[in-house]
Amino acid sequence: MTASESARVDQDNTGLQETDMGVSVLGDGSHVHKSDPRLGALACVDDAGATIGLVIAFGGVLPEEMVSLLSLLQNDLLDVYSDLHTPMGVEDEHQVRITTGYIDRIQALYDAYSDQTAPSASAVIPGGTASAAFLHKARASVRLAEHHVWIALEQNPESMNLLAASYLNRLSALLFVLARTANAEHGDLLWQPGLSERAAQEAQEQQQEAEQA
Asked: Where is this region: Disordered (predicted)?
């Protein structure tokens, strides 16, 4: 497998037999067990991209501009996948690597959407419109992917690109403001600390008052 093909695995019989036994092949041809943290990170990046696909397919009516952006982010996540799948040091002019340019673009988008979003009075509950709920799910998936990439980086600092983790960090922030943008018309669902406890106490007090009446 060449580095430029690192975002896919040829599903021939030999490859399938190896993966059946818990072995996977990285972009440089090295074999690793599927319990390797790098494989966990790759799976989470894959999940994040698929979740953004669900946003596009089932997230309700989204502005064309946002659909185009989300499609671009899916492509970026495959770049992240390819980068992480192929250890650093592999000489292949076609191999994609995450650079500061990726991060700067995400930061610029975050700033632009944040400028259009009013400050929140409390933490935001991941829900609201269908679009916002799916975007929050995508955000959570990206956060999990970032977590697993950092775990893999701790064990493979020389062979993995730290900028891939930085990109995921900025991406989760961008997806948060996109979710808030999708809720702009109806407003965010805001966290009310201790709400269920207060409601239970009020119900208990009302019951006691009724019994005493």
From this structure: 1-20
89-140 residue pLDDT tens: 888 888 999 999 999 999 999 999 999 888 877 798 889 999 999 999 999 9
Asked if 94 and 100 count as a contact pair (C-beta separation under 8 A), the reply is no
Domains recognised in the chain with CATH numbers = 37-212 (1.20.1200.10)
* Global confidence as pTM: 0.86
DSSP string, the chain: --GGGTT-----HHHHHHHHTTEEE-TTS-EEETTSHHHHHHHHHHHHHHHHHHHHHHS-S--HHHHHHHHHHHHHHHHHHHHHHS-TT---TT-----HHHHHHHHHHHHHHHHTSPPPSSPEES-SSHHHHHHHHHHHHHHHHHHHHHHHHHH-TTTS-HHHHHHHHHHHHHHHHHHHHHTTTT-PEEP-TTHHHHHHHHHHHHHHHHHH-
pLDDT at 17 (0 to 100): 72
Amino acid found at 67: V
